[in-house]
Prior knowledge:
Blueprint: H1 2-14, H2 19-27, E1 32-34, H3 35-40, H4 45-54, E2 57-61, E3 64-67, H5 76-85, E4 91-92, H6 94-101, E5 111-116, E6 128-133, E7 142-145, E8 148-151, H7 153-163, H8 167-179, H9 185-192, H10 197-211
Parallel strand pairs: 5-6
Antiparallel strand pairs: 1-3, 2-3, 4-5, 7-8
Amino acid sequence: MEDTTKTTRTQKTEHAPDRSRLFEIASDQGGYFTAEQANMCGYSRALLSHHFKSGTFIRVRRGLYRFREYPSSSHEDVLAAWMAVGKDNSMVSHESALDIHGLSNVIPDVVHLTVPRSRRKFPSLPGVKIHTTTRPLRKEDMVTRDGIIITSAKRSILDAAVAGTAPEQIEMSIIQAIDRGLVTPQSLQEEADKRGHRVSKLIKDSLHRMKQ
Length: 212
């Protein structure tokens, strides 16, 4: 009887919700966390529902929550899409990244995410555009903004140029990125030359007009 009691107590301890761990995870994601992450920290579906109803957690959408003490993000839809696809194997990119960087006046009509082409499976989500790439995702290609991993200013500009973003928006993003010290003309042109003739010329012409 005593052994059974000890076992029961141990099980309760092992399955007790770990708020500190969940808060640590959420802190790296702008205060947001998924139901799966909460479950890993000992929160059952019923317990999640309880905390939502009591106001401790705010439910952003199905499967995505936020700690009440964290303010909402202006890029909540982007963060939700990124976490749904899998934040460990994807980055916010193209026009969505330009928007978060505050480069150009582009207003994305979908959330753009980039994943390695080797990744075969990812969820199909409405309002989300998945781009696959064979280009290595280097450390210098990634930055974190508001808890979201996005492509660097340079890669965002070039990816958007390749994808067909309006030339005037690309030129505006180049001007703003250089003014803010996010890229240098030389490094931008060097990378653009690897993206084909059209993109190389677009960047070269934009940089030339800046000098006039």
